[in-house]
Amino acid sequence: MTTSTQNPTKAQGDELREQVLAAARRAREAAAELALATRDAKDALLHAMADALVRRAPEILAANERDVAAARESGMAEGLVDRLSLSTDRIAAMADGLRTVAGLPDPVGEVVRGQVLPNGLQLQQVRVPLGVVGIVYEGRPNVTADAAGLTLKSGNAVLLRGSSSAENSNAVLVSILSDVVAEHGLPADAVQLLPCHDRASVKHLITARGLVDVVIPRGGAGLISAVVEQATVPAIETGVGNCHVYVDAQADADTALRILLNSKARRVSVCNAAENLLVHADIADEFLPKALAELNSAGVTVHGDERVVAVGGPNVVPATEEDWDTEYLSADIAVAVVESLPAAVEHIRTHGSGHTEAIVTNDVRAARRFTAQVDAAAVMVNASTAFTDGGEFGMGAEIGISTQKLHARGPMGLPELTSTKWLAFGDGHVRGAGAPAPTSCPNA
Amino acid sequence: MTTSTQNPTKAQGDELREQVLAAARRAREAAAELALATRDAKDALLHAMADALVRRAPEILAANERDVAAARESGMAEGLVDRLSLSTDRIAAMADGLRTVAGLPDPVGEVVRGQVLPNGLQLQQVRVPLGVVGIVYEGRPNVTADAAGLTLKSGNAVLLRGSSSAENSNAVLVSILSDVVAEHGLPADAVQLLPCHDRASVKHLITARGLVDVVIPRGGAGLISAVVEQATVPAIETGVGNCHVYVDAQADADTALRILLNSKARRVSVCNAAENLLVHADIADEFLPKALAELNSAGVTVHGDERVVAVGGPNVVPATEEDWDTEYLSADIAVAVVESLPAAVEHIRTHGSGHTEAIVTNDVRAARRFTAQVDAAAVMVNASTAFTDGGEFGMGAEIGISTQKLHARGPMGLPELTSTKWLAFGDGHVRGAGAPAPTSCPNA
């Protein structure tokens, strides 16, 4: 993320803060209207957004060309330039994404639980939108349409804070999307783009308590950590995956090889890729040579502990302490031999990021123990780590993969973008004088 | 909350930090064991804790006497001294609270959803403990037993940071409770009391990312706000209730009076008490004189807008701008006349704290609109605000009443003290090479 403003003056700083807070206030007003939109209205909106993106593709591509040219000029790495670049196909994919979200069930209004209390009061817990959702992301402009679709469908207003490298692309995208919102009789402020040239706009967004209901960072570990640490509005930690495949003593070696290769090498740059292999000592002599050779064929470098290095191979280098904690996102894997299942669990407890952990075993007790003791968003038994994905889990789409324990854990779809509200319907119901106060009331 | 340490040296500060982090690390180890405890084991533990509190009441009372004497000496207000004071009856009530929690269903292990994916992968989302829960609270020692019972039953370890005024009481209580934990073969570190003489211990607790999974402040608005703003671990905002009763044009006046009086005057010091009355202009002439007179009989001072002051009465004073935002927790109420239901909704949106809001009406459309547009943890139709309470809602007990939208909203019982985990059971399942990456992956 590049910033073009250095040392802004105090007055500029105050102006930026007011700009962000004013956007948040408008979003809050928009959210109040959006919360009442019917599913029909929201689905029609998303389809119209998809159509508008396709129809106005030339504008989007022209703006994107300016971003790409500026990025190349600033010396951006080609991999990042590729993520920034749009094409007719990529715009069509964005439009398809919006249509997919339109086809998903609307979580708003779902009755989560309900009962009639002994005194006759009718009680319901219903899903309601969160309100205003802030998304902080990096240089991929498709996140703009994706995040807007998911938040609007779940009845929320969205404040988008993208990378300055995608400034022109995002501005055109948001202008197209909010035009469509307004054409559908809904508040255009439901989708807004925040200033992206000063990191301070992120800070103002994530500290706007009372205006912003939740902030979701979508990006690398540095971005996520900065947002979560500085936010005073509730934040959801997403995406960092230091995932392990543990091959138990009772594993079938061929199954283990297939799962290892798929977990590691199917796509190396994604958060659900395995970054570590743990092998039970009892199966190491049989399994390790095959695993190292297969990883070598797949072009994967192995960062091994002493016993792995002893087996050796053209792709084996000694692991450093840092390797166990590294999310490579590349064709690398850290490999260790462990003495027991508890040792594997302990290794994962110490080094894992709580994303996805897999065991390969035919021992029911080992599977039971591993699933109970490993504390992660997803635990796989005899299956690839690559399955942790909102699409695979049947959610249709995801706004992120939460690695925290509060609110949502694992892939976050539409229901995870909602809160709940208790509704009680009475007939003049009052509470008895003798009834106790809520036990948690500080002043009761 | 009093602090006895002023300007601690840097070395003392580092030592305190290490002390809190070491406690959190031990709690994390304890949590890993506790997560595997069966319901039978946890219920037996809670019953034994209750028995131990009653059996060792003399020790608790002796320690509490020292706290109470010190509090009186320091000039603590009698109301606060009362909250600090324990008696045989209050200890019995703590024990009963633990037994009640023992009788509640165990949320851990509940299968929230489950399905077999099209590829045959068996997917389950199951409830798991949060892990380590931090509770920051004020001078009521009964919170110690209450919070310990709820967190242990839900499989969590708890770090208790109580007030220094209750230091001796809390130390004895926690020592009794952790003795019982150890006697039951579970880790004694599952219940720990943190140092309470320096506010910095709160800061170290709420910034222990990676060690503490959630922090819940239980106390007044100042404590809650300080914790939520400074925390880098996820926090849950609880308890502040600036609740409204709105009397609609179509209300039955007698029903409205009954609900108003119950909401305001049943107990004035609790978070679910009404602090505001909004009256539709069309019913004001009929309703206001009766309401002001009844509030006067109940000893409630009315802070009224111009039209309310014009009606007058011995208990009516003009409202200031601050009154609309004030959680009195006393025999006071702010009263305004509004021109319409939308004006009432707008007033509540501007001044409410998102706790509990009530409408009194016989108009179905008004009820529908109010419940849809008012954004609060609980919305009551023709019922008292006093019903927002975990006990009343059938949860059996509550750790707090969340006024935020993330994770839990409204009374928080045992399920709200859990997270979830996805479990996938396969038979060597791997993902196709052509399948897309998770859409949210920053590097995909």
Automatic annotation (TrEMBL), chains A, B:
Q: Which top-level group of life is the source organism from?
A: Bacteria
Where in this chain does the entry annotate a coiled-coil region? Answer: none
Query: What catalytic reaction does the record list?
Result: L-glutamate 5-semialdehyde + phosphate + NADP(+) = L-glutamyl 5-phosphate + NADPH + H(+)
Does this UniProt record's set of keywords contain NADP?
Answer: yes
Q: Which Pfam families match?
A: Aldedh (PF00171)
Q: Is-annotated flag, keyword NADP?
A: yes
Question: In which broad location class does this protein mainly occur, judging by the first location in its UniProt entry?
Answer: cytoplasm
The enzyme's first-digit EC class, named in words, is: oxidoreductase
Alphabetically ordered keywords of this record: Amino-acid biosynthesis, Cytoplasm, NADP, Oxidoreductase, Proline biosynthesis
Pathway(s) of this molecule? Amino-acid biosynthesis; L-proline biosynthesis; L-glutamate 5-semialdehyde from L-glutamate: step 2/2
Domain Aldehyde dehydrogenase residues, every copy: 17-301
Which InterPro entries does the record cross-reference, listed alphabetically? Answer: Ald_DH/histidinol_DH, Ald_DH_C, Ald_DH_N, Aldehyde_DH_dom, G-glutamylP_reductase_CS, Glu-5-SA_DH, GPR_dom
Where located?
Cytoplasm
Assigned EC number: 1.2.1.41
Q: State the protein's purpose.
A: Catalyzes the NADPH-dependent reduction of L-glutamate 5-phosphate into L-glutamate 5-semialdehyde and phosphate. The product spontaneously undergoes cyclization to form 1-pyrroline-5-carboxylate.
The UniProt similarity line reads:
Belongs to the gamma-glutamyl phosphate reductase family.
| Name of protein | Gamma-glutamyl phosphate reductase
